[in-house]
Amino acid sequence: MHTDMDSIVDCYDVEYEHNNFGYNNKQWIMDNVDVYDHVTKVIRYHPKYFEHYIKTHRYLMYDDGPLPFTTRHYLAIIAAARNKCNYLVNLHEKEFLAEGGDTKWLNGLEFIPQKLRAIYDINKILAHRPWLLTKEHIERLTKGTNSWSLAEVVHAIVILSHFHSLSSFVFSCGLNQELDASLKNEPESPTVSEPEPVIKPSTTPPFIQRLKLEQQRMHQMMKEQEENKKILQQSNSQVLMNGVNSDNIEMLMKRMQDLSDKKKECSETELSNRFKNVELQAAQLTSPADVVIVNISPSISHYVDDPNYAYQDFARRGAENIPHTFRIQDYSWDDHGYSLVNRLYNDVGFLLDDKFRVAYNLTYKTLAGRQNVDTSKFRRAIWNYIQCIFGIRHDDYDYGEVNKLLDRPLKTFIKTACCFPDRITKQDYDSILVELLDSEKVHVNLMILEAKNQAMLLYALRELNR
Ligand SMILES: CC(C)C[C@H](N)C(=O)O
């Protein structure tokens, strides 16, 4: 019988062949397939990135490190709960219990030790307004009785930003809705007093099924390509485009090409104005955020304090008297963040660095079924736009490119995924970039995950450094 597990592994064979990755850790990944939850399975559709994701995830949550295992899972819970991501909360409640965690803690923030409670402010600020973190927030933790060591603080911050950004990924793929539904069809989850040692997903949600089908289709196409390249070109448009008008993609390709051909020198002031312009437009994107609806499900509300605290657009940040632009030339991951985090929490910087690099550079040189496309301009625009939403400016980048390459619906999607992830619905996911394959949309969502994660870490590490 062809089991769920078999077909997922098959899909990976397809992806490996298709992308021709020089990746040699396949056996390890295959051996561990049954312990992965649904979200991790979706990430596995990009094996080159997945290798670094899973290494980091395992290091943060299960390897030797400054914080006890139960604390790590509790941090995952409060980070996911801030983003209203029920799926990740439930998952880490189970893991928390499996590590022997105190069941009382799952009754909510009032039941946890003072030391752990003390980090909640950092969790809240990091989740929504990381630019407001100050060294005083960190000092409050590291001084006095029950204090945190710096290594513990760094471990906690890395876990918190990992789960804040992972929550964005869950919602941006439209998975929370699906997983909620599929969890309801699963057998009763264990009660608090009966921890389940290993998380074994049973039913496969429709989104993962769709990805699988897409992979199979790609596999079939690759075979055909070897036999007859001409037939392939036809099937690219017929099979992959699914009858969708491809004008948008042609236009995007033309714009990317134009930008690569015409490299215009731009004055510093002009570059700075273009950044401000994109930032201002991002603030003006109509987002449901303007209406404050606090809608936290009762199953996670006990992990959330101050539920009205949310993302704030830069235009309103001015009122807080915060210089809002974070300039990468003053504090960058490569030159500063990476070495600091490495020093304080042994070698995690290497793992994060590899993961960021792969997420930033990942490409299959494809676009909506077309082969050999240089998508670097498009991907860079997405990455920098995400960080712009968090007030981060890459000084050498011309933000005019963002406006040429990203249309308004895509920008709205990105902003919502970063700042109000729970407001993304499956329909939002379906309605943007309609010409792209699902695996390409997941690719965009992985960039949202990592660019956001890096943005949060940059703010936190800059303050730690002070
Ligand atoms: C996000 C996608 C447009 C990326 C593209 N498929 C690439 O391989 O570069």
Explain this structure to me?
By secondary structure, the protein is mainly α. The chain has 23 helices and four strands. The longest helix is centred in the C-terminal third of the chain and has 28 residues, at 438-465. The protein is globular and about 65 Å long. Residues 1-31, 187-202 and 232-244 have low confidence and may be disordered. The structure holds leucine. The site of leucine has 10 residues, from strand 2 and helix 23. Residues 184-204 are annotated as: Disordered. It is found in: Cytoplasm. One of its GO terms (biological process) is positive regulation of macroautophagy.
Structural class: mainly alpha
Instruction: Tell me the overall shape.
Output: globular
Identify low-pLDDT runs.
1-31, 187-202, 232-244
List each distinct ligand once.
leucine
Q: Give the ordered list of helices and strands.
A: HHHHHHHHHHHHHHHHEHHEEHEHHHH
**Strand order in the largest sheet:** 1-4
> Beta-sheet strand percentage?
under 5%
Number of strands: 4
Number of helices: 23
Kindly provide the radius of gyration, computed on alpha-carbon positions and rounded to a whole number of angstroms.
22 Å
Mean pLDDT: 83
How can the largest sheet be summarized? Answer: 2 strands, parallel
Share in helix:
55-70%
Cα end-to-end separation: 59 Å
